[in-house]
Amino acid sequence: MSVAPEEDALLLVQLTDSHLFGERDGRLLGLPTLDSLREVVGLVLAQQPRVDLLLATGDLSQDGSAQSYRYLREQHARIAAPARWCAGNHDVGEVMRGAASADMLQGVTDLGGWRIILLDSAVPGSVSGHLPDERLAWLDRVLREAGERHCLVALHHHPVAMGSQWLDGIGLHNGDALMALLERHEQVRVLLWGHVHQAFDQVRNGTRLLASPSTGVQFTPHSEDFQVSPQAPGYRWLRLHADGRVETAVSRLAEGAFPVDLQGGDY
């Protein structure tokens, strides 16, 4: 689905959970993750005439190798927009930071009437996420300093229940603290995350809560145990209006373009 440019609107693209390997032909559950990312970026280029900011919300790499992040930069560079990265549980923070430019890792980006904030929810050695008190205090401060700007907050781990027993055990462990903080800031319009490899869209207290498909393997919604979905890889676009309105949708590759091993076990 393409989105026409508009003078007072910003167009953001989220590419999440790419799970790249140091080997060009690395596969996750049978799916070649670099090839699928390349095709998803091609879909963005075909559908979006202008992108203002690219958000990569964690699990950028599967093996934490420097080469996997170089592959990621090559693919992101095909989109003529600045990129912002945050870490996921599969990322190796030191290696990721070494592969990224300084601007890719900045936590606050002001564009027009919007402030875009990226949070690092990764905990070394843990699949689940956590936001330490000092990070929550930083978030509270940058939200207060946003003034009249509308705000979008993005991170890797999901802070609310997804209705999936296995996934909800590996989300953001202090999600309630994050949600309580955001409720004190009326200018927060969007909370966006990755990690769950599926689309999610709710509104809570005036804030749009959004999760997005992976550029590779997808997970089955509302599953009790780990389960892979045959849905195609994709991305999310977000159109942010000057008056705070948000339009968003998910776009996917053609079904069957990248089949996965549905019995492949854990990821």
From TrEMBL:
InterPro entries assigned: Calcineurin-like_PHP, CNP_phosphodiesterase-III, GpdQ/CpdA-like, Metallo-depent_PP-like
Domain Calcineurin-like phosphoesterase: 13-198
Keywords: Hydrolase, Iron, Metal-binding
KW Glycosyltransferase (keyword) present: no
SUPFAM superfamilies reported in the protein's UniProt record: Metallo-dependent phosphatases (SSF56300)
Pfam families registered for this protein in UniProt: Metallophos (PF00149)
Presence of keyword Disulfide bond: no
UniProt GO MF annotations: cyclic-nucleotide phosphodiesterase activity; metal ion binding
Family: Belongs to the cyclic nucleotide phosphodiesterase class-III family.
PANTHER family: CYCLIC NUCLEOTIDE PHOSPHODIESTERASE CBUA0032-RELATED, PHOSPHOHYDROLASE
Listed NCBIfam families: PRK11148.1
Protein name as annotated: 3',5'-cyclic-AMP phosphodiesterase
Species for this entry: Stutzerimonas kirkiae
